[in-house]
Amino acid sequence: MLKGTGFYLRRFTQFDGRSMVDNWCSDPLVTQFVSWDVPLSLKAAQVLLNQWLKDYFDPHVVRFNIVDANTHQSIGMIDTVDYDLDNDTLEIGYLLARTHWNKKIMSEALRLMIDYCFKHHASLNKIIAKHSVDNAASGQVMRNAHMRLEGCMKEALKVDDIYLDVLHYAILKKEYLLTYGKL
To answer: Nearest Cα to 76, choosing from 125, 148, 7?
Structure first.
């Protein structure tokens, strides 16, 4: 478990479905830029959770439930979306309940995730994150975590049959070490 200010990160369990659906999965504003099928029902959430629990056996999968420290309810998630072993690079994705937006929770969760990934994946050289150009708040989250804008990829994300331009951010291990010190 990783502790943040007013929240903590932990692995998902089979009991998280209800709070996922109630707090963030079923909110179209939270999920509008997601390219995967977000569960809208408890039954669909249980199916997804069963897959996510199996995914934990893969050492390259890092997936945390963002949990409100007061209510102990799921308020979001953060995970490794892709791990490029050939280039020692991984991508992080995240979602957060709208009721917790603009509270610096996601920025802190991303910093915790970056720290965790660099510490637990010795060969890792680069961490990336991307967001739709229409989701400026996500870019601010990435900048708050000391990630740097690397460029814009035109029509790189397809959501609901619409191609979106995507901004690409990254932090290198050497930049992380300069910012945060040793691993």
So the answer is: 7
pTM greater than 0.85 (yes/no): yes
- Backbone region of residue 83 per phi and psi (left: phi > 0; alpha: psi in -120 to 50; beta: other values): beta
- Helices 105-120 and 136-144 pack at an angle, to 10 degrees, of 50
**Would you state the structure tokens that stand for residue 111, as one six-digit string?**
């910093």
Q: How many residues does the chain have?
A: 183
141, burial (CB in 10 Å: exposed 0-12, middle 13-18, buried 19+): buried
- Extract the residue ranges of the chain whose pLDDT is less than 70: 35-36, 39, 183
Six token digits for residue 124: 């890792």
Helix residue ranges, H only, 62-159: 105-120, 136-144
Homologous superfamily of the 2-180 domain (CATH): Gcn5-related N-acetyltransferase (GNAT) (3.40.630.30)
Residue of 72, 69, 36 lying closest to 55 (CA atoms): 36
